[in-house]
Structure formats: C-alpha cells, structure tokens
Amino acid sequence: MPILKFSNHFFSAALFFVMCCVGHLSANTQLMASERPAFTDYCSRLEHDIQGRKHGFLAGNVTYYVGGFHASWRTIEDETIGLTHPFYHDLRARGASRVQSEITGTENTGTGNDYMSWEFYKDTRVLYGSVIVNGKTYETPKPRIMRWRPDQVICEYDLDGITIREQKFIGSNDAAASIITASKPVTLQFTGQSLFTRNSVSSQAAARLDDSKRSILITEAGTTKSRPDPGGPERIGPSVYSGMTTVLSASTELASSLVLEKDDKGVMHYTFSIPCDSKGAVVSWAMHDDEATAIQAGHDMIDDHADALAEKTTSMNQLLNDEIPWFRCPEKKFVDIYYYLWSLYLMYSIDVGNGWEMENHTQTAVNNFLGLHRYDAMFQIKVGAWAADKAHYGYGNVLTWKHLTANNRFRELPNGIRMLSDNKGTSWHSGAYGGEMSEHVLGAWQIYEHTGDVEFLRASYEDHFEKLFRKRLTNFSMNEFEVAETLARMASVLGKEADVKHWQSLVRTDPDHVRLMFDQRWEMNGIEKYFAGPKSGLIGTNSFWAMRSPYFPKEYAEEMVQHWAVDREKGFFGEFFPLAMSKQSMQEFDTKVDHSFGYTPDTAYFMLDGMFCQGLSVAPELTLNHIGNYNWHNEWNIPVAPEAYRRDRTLFGDQYSNFNAGKILLYLEGLGGLKYSIPENKLLVRPALPDAWEWMEIRLPLKGEWTTIRYEKDTVDVSGSPLSWERISRGNSN
Is 153 within the bounds of a domain? Predict the structure, then answer.
C-alpha cells in the first residue's frame, strides 16, 4: 500500500491547492460529530451461503475453526453437526511438533519450526455429530445450507422432515461452541479423538469424565515427526499439544452415554449422546495449558452461550463500524468486498503475549501461512496504519520483527546485508530468509505519519532498523533511495544527527545517479519497453512494482503499461487483469506451479499500486477489473479471497487469505488517493474515481473524529477534517 510519504516525496509534480479545510478540532466539533457513519450490521450484510463452495472459517484470538475441509477449493470433507476442526494455535510451533533446531549461530531456528504437518488441523476429529431419529442414524449429515458471517457460521440440515439448525462461533474466551436446535426431538451423537496427525509417532493421551461440569477432559501427549531445520534430517519430538488439556462440554449430562476407548496407538476415542429439541442443545470445545482455565472456558460457553454469541456479534460489528474507514460506492459488490477483506484482516489479529510474540499483529491465512510473514507484512503493516486504533492494529506488524533483530536471529551475507526469516512464533523462526524488510521501513514511517507517535518510531528504529540496515540496505523493487531517505528522516525526528549522515552516505540519492540507475535498467537484456528485464526472459509483474518508487520515470511507466500491462496478446491482461506472468512467458514457462499461480493478489496489488503512484489514467478501471473478478464470484454472487487463481481461472489455495489485504489499500490510497500526515497537519486527496461510478464516499477516523471525503465527477468535497487538506491532480505522479 504505498503511501508516498509527505515528508519525503509528496508527489514530485506540482501540487495545486483547491481548498484549505478547517484546521482545528475545537472549531469544528459539531461538524465532525455529524460525519460519524450510521451503524450498519455488517455481520448480517456479509452473510452468504458457502455450502459446496468454501469450508467454514471462524477465528478467535488463538483459536480457529475450519468446518469440513476443502483442498484448494475442492471438497474433501463436508461440514457436519458439531465442531469438526477447532484448533488452538498460539504460534508455539509452525507445524504439529516442537523440536529444537540443531543449527549453530544466528540461523538457529529455535524450538518449534517444522517443515512438516503445517496444516495439522486437517487431521483433527473433535466433535463429529450424527442424528438418531426413531432408531435410525443419519451419520455426519451434510448441511443443506451453510452461511458464513464474520461472527458465526450457521448450518441448516433437513433430515426426514426434521429441520436442524446450528450456530457455530468462537467466544471472547477462545472457546468454540455449537448451538443446535431441532424442529422435533432427536438424539445427537458425537464422536472424536485426541490429537493424532498423519506424522504422529505415538500418543500418551489420557481422558476422563468431569461429571460435575458435564465435560470430557483429555490430557494431550505424544510424539510427532518433524523437520525443524532447512535441509536437515527428520526427527521426532513432542507433539504441539503435549501437556495441554482439551475440554469437551455439553448442555446435558454425558455420563450415561459416554464411551472412552484407547486404541493400539494410544489415541483416546470418545462417543457420547445428548437430546435435542426446539429448546436447543449446546456443545463446546476449549483448550489451554492450564486445565482449570480450559474447564472454565468450556463451562462458560455452555452456560452463557447466548450472551457469548451476542457479544461476538457486537464485537465484530463494532470493529467494522468504528475501527476502519467507511466506504460506499454505487456498486454494492465492491462495498461488500471491501468489508469482507477488512473482516479477514481483523479476524486474523492475534495477541499472544509470550516469547517472540509480545505484540499483537495480523496474520496471513489459516493454512501453512498462519502467522505474520515478512513479505506479507509489507502491505499488512500499511493496512494497519488506516485503522482507528493504530497501536493495536498497526504497531505490532512492525515491532514483532524486532525480536529477531535484537536477538541476532538473522542471516548475514558477506556483503553486510542482514535478512530476516519468512515468519516466526513464540520460540522459533523459519529457515527461509529474504530482504523485503526495507519496505517495513516505509510502512513504519506511514504509521508515524498517521499518528505522530515518536515513541513508536523510536521503538521501530532503535535496535531494529538501525541495526538491520547498518552495514547495507536491502533493495525491494528499487525502493532503496526512498528507504535511505526515510531512515535519515527517522533519525532526524529522533535527534540522531550522526545517523542522519550515515544513511545519507549509505545510498547515493543525488538526482543524476538515481536517474542513471533507472535508465540502465530500461529495456535491459533486450526486452522492449520493459524495466529490469531478466536474462531468463521470464516476464512477471515484478518490474511494474518499481513504479511505486517516487523516482521511477513516468515516461517509462506509460510505455511499459501500454506495451505490456494492458496488452491481451503477449502481455498481462488475461481473462481479467493482471496475470502473474505475461502470456509471452507462459509459452515457455509451463510447469504445474506456474499454472497454479496464474493470478495472485500480491502481484496485482504491487502492480496496480505502482500505476496509481504514477498517476496513470488506466489505474482505476484496471483496479475495478481486478477486484471485481478476483474477489467476487459472479456465479455464487459472493465475495471471495483466494490465495490464487490458476491460469484457467479455477480457484487455488487457501480460501480465506489475508494475502488479499493489499486490495484494501487500492480502495483507500488508489481510488481514494488518500494520504495524510498528523505531524504536518495535512490531508492530500488525489481522486481516481472510476469512469463507471458517478460518486464514491470515504469517511476516515482522524484524531478521534470522522472526516468525510465525497467524490463526484470532477469534484471532491471534504468535511469534518481536523487537518488542512489539498486536492492533487490525478495526472500528477508520486
């Protein structure tokens, strides 16, 4: 989401002043209060049927729920009554085992990195429900409909004239519950087992009944195969849940029907039955290291399920109403996509408070990308900068990485470049390294611009950025010039004048040199009208990402976009915009992986963001084309957030991927053209209203109040702003 920072390059072309909006909060309190959007029940608005389309997904803080299982959007297992795959994940391990790294030095990955069993929830069997009617058993019935909302999943079943309805959700205490009603009396039978994955070696789990709490208590224990080190051998270590307690509770007694059995692998299996009618029945699941805490959480969900669900709905609606910028336009689907993407961003927020996970942050996906990833953080940091509570939703996306830097957990190359791991948890980091951290600098600066919080800036800089880049600055898509300037600007704000001079000397930023660096890469390796073309001839979107630099020559941007981006024969315009690889390159690069990642959300974000940064007129329409095709399923008429599309436009990968978070920035910074600085008391608006829309409206939470930006053909109106504002011509770049 770049936001080109005010203090460095506030758009290199001339700014023109349209209106200075009222500047001081005290003088405009009444006006600004009127800008507060009316309450919207977004949980209801976003409700849509996912049966046969997606698996169910819910999130608490460290608890998640996957209903059934779809492999890359292909149904493997249908959801059923009960709680099929709730799982606990506080980032104590990357997979299903906790094994200590054997690597010496700074690349020791700690305890918990695992290249096996990333998606161990697939192997869990917690509460699989069947229905008994007049002696006939309907085993794990498939829902007739399954409706997803940010706060709950609602399933409905039709069995021999009986309607069964259930509401599944995760409460604020991280326990999961299913509230079930039946139009006629039935018996619900549930089966499940202790944790045992495809890579498990042994189980020492134990189970017992706590009749006073109507609960089954399972002490999880066992060993699992693991590969903690990249290229290292397979080893065996404790299961991720070893020492934890699983608690399964019900609204009626369990003792009379409970069967506990241990198989020859030591896995504990359980079966129990409870009655259900129109008055309802409830089952719950909870996990914790402390047994008493798990018991209490499960028991509370049974006794207070109605209040707990109401609290969940209220909480999600509060976040979607008060925490994020308000957006409206003439096309309902684009509004729904916007709030759907924000709901995933907020649902993936995690606050562990342990080890290297001391700061709350968002995450990428429920699958193997659970956790915050170094690459993804480039745009997820910037999304958090637009939340109202930036300390909660923005700061941690930057500061969580500081634990690795401060503890010397990085890879240092002979040339002095220091790279951080792909992702990390409480006591581990992965063995995959990269240099995208330079983009984190720009995101941190944007958070500072949006807050004026010098102490956040100090925390980001000291013992992190200043240490990571001291010897050599990494480069991401020609951002080194802007990053060097931003580091110098940080040092200046913090009163570190010696550091200012250091950053100024580390990277040459004189105009002639900078221009030369871009000129030398134009039509490189003989690729016509293309920037930084590779020797391999693989023409991907990467070169367009460099257009995000405030120094990228606009004439190059215009030529490259016309020649490659919008071209439908050899370029990047496939069935929709953009392909991750040009059609020309597809003829040569034709592997299974290439086909799987035909269209990807990150490449689209960086490419389109570059077009907005250059002020290109094609950007708004291409953005609508991408979002309207990538994040909306026309047949189902619902929003989607896939990890990728294959070349043939079939869906691929994770189904609820926060990898799409950059699209939020295309709304606010792209179409809205918004950027602001609290320290400079400035709001800039460069409107990019699509030709297809007559109007658009965004309301920003600024300094505790709401600012309204109304876009219409050739006009922009700003009201309720505590900052002075200026309109910038759409044609201006950077």
Answer: yes
In a domain, 730, yes or no: no
Q: Other CB atoms closer than 10 Å to residue 362's CB: what's the count? A: 25
| Assessment of whether the complete model's pTM goes beyond 0.90 | yes
Q: What is the DSSP letter of 428?
A: B
Distance CA 492, CA 500 (A): 6
Give the span between the Cα atoms of 460 and 132, in whole angstroms. 59
DSSP per-residue codes, 642-671: -SEE-TTS-EES-SB-GGGTHHHHIIIIII
Give the mean pLDDT per block of 10 residues along the chain (734 residues): 32 31 32 74 98 97 95 93 97 96 94 93 96 96 98 97 97 98 98 97 97 94 96 96 98 96 97 98 98 97 98 98 98 98 98 97 92 97 98 98 96 96 96 96 98 98 98 96 98 98 96 97 96 91 97 98 96 96 86 85 98 97 98 98 95 96 98 98 98 98 95 96 93 66
What is the token pair recorded at 56? 């169910």
Give CA–CA dist 237/373, Å, rounded: 25
CB within 8 Å of 30: residues ≥ 6 apart: none
CA distance 343 to 318: 11
Domain count along the chain: 1
Phi, psi of 328, deg, nearest 5:
-145, 150
3-state secondary structure 269-290: EEEEEEEECCCCEEEEEEEECC
Q: For residue 292, what are the domain limits? A: 49-319
Does residue 176 fall inside a structural domain? yes
Cβ burial 27-56 (10 Å sphere, 16+ → b, else e): ebeeebeebbeeeeebbebbbbbbbebbbb
Q: Quick check: is 483 in a domain?
A: no
Q: Where are the beta strands (DSSP E) in 78-133?
A: 82-83, 85-88, 127-133
**Residue 25 Rama label (left phi>0; alpha psi -120 to 50; beta):** alpha
- Beta carbons of 710 and 677 less than 8 angstroms apart: no
Helix, coil or strand: residue 719: strand
Query: Do residues 181 and 278 touch, judged by C-beta distance below 8 A?
Result: yes
Within 26-144, strands assigned E span 48-49, 56-59, 63-67, 69-71, 74-77, 82-83, 85-88, 127-133, 136-138
Look at phi and psi of residue 408 and say left if phi exceeds 0, alpha if psi is from -120 to 50, else beta: left
> Cβ of 401: how many Cβ atoms within 10 Å?
28
Q: Nearest Cα to 54, choosing from 595, 626, 636?
A: 636
Tell me which amino acid residue 568 is. R
Classify residue 188 as exposed, middle or buried by CB count within 10 Å of its CB (0-12, 13-18, 19+): buried
| 326-338 residues labelled b (16+ CB within 10 A) or e (exposed) | bbbbebebbbbbb
Closest listed residue to residue 147, CA positions, set 63, 62, 82, 58: 58
Cis-peptide, bond into residue 679, ω within 30° of zero: no
CB 91 within 8 Å of CB 350: yes
Rounded Cα distance, 129 and 115, in Å: 32
CATH number for position 97: 2.70.98
